[in-house]
Design goal:
This protein has 153 residues and is of the alpha+beta class. The protein contains four helices and eight strands.
Length: 153
């Protein structure tokens, strides 16, 4: 997959992305409501098992102005009719509207692929993700362990 947004490129991972992604995923602030910060070895396994497979679950997120890896994007089949989307972005790039830009691009991409609906899962304390989901038309369908939002396309 390759999607260009106004400022970013969503592309397949390369093995050379491990260290840069580790620098992002090892941040306690970035990973606060997701899971414990990653080690370099866990990052390597994460890319190998989720990004460097025939049908990737995650993709590299690159900032086009400087060609810098700034995080990753989740885009994969959730069940037979729905795809999950998400993102983890370097703290340095927060509060710039990048997550919203990526979300809108993934919605457009999914519509072109005739995907039935999209899912965003997040912790109930991830207020910015929840606001972004609602702003983009996603509706809350579950708030048990995680909040699950769905956008029927």
């Amino acid at each position: 997959m390759r999607i260009e947004t106004q400022r970013c490129l969503i592309r397949n991972f390369n093995e050379s992305d491990v260290y840069t992604l580790y620098c992002i995923l090892s941040s306690p602030k970035v990973m606060e409501y997701i899971e414990p910060p990653f080690t370099e070895e866990k990052t390597k396994l994460f890319i190998e098992n989720n990004g460097l497979i025939p049908s990737p679950l995650v993709y590299a997120l690159e900032y086009r102005n400087n060609n810098k890896l700034i995080g990753h994007v989740i885009f994969h089949e959730y069940d037979s009719k729905r795809y999950e989307i998400g993102w983890i972005i370097s703290e340095e790039y927060w509060n710039q509207g990048i997550a919203d830009e990526i979300t809108k691009s993934l919605i457009d991409f999914a519509r072109k692929k005739l995907i039935h609906s999209l899912i965003i899962e997040c912790d109930s304390r991830q207020n910015k993700t929840i606001k972004l989901a609602v702003r983009n038309g996603f509706k809350l369908i579950s708030d048990k362990d995680l909040c699950i939002y769905e956008l029927v396309l």
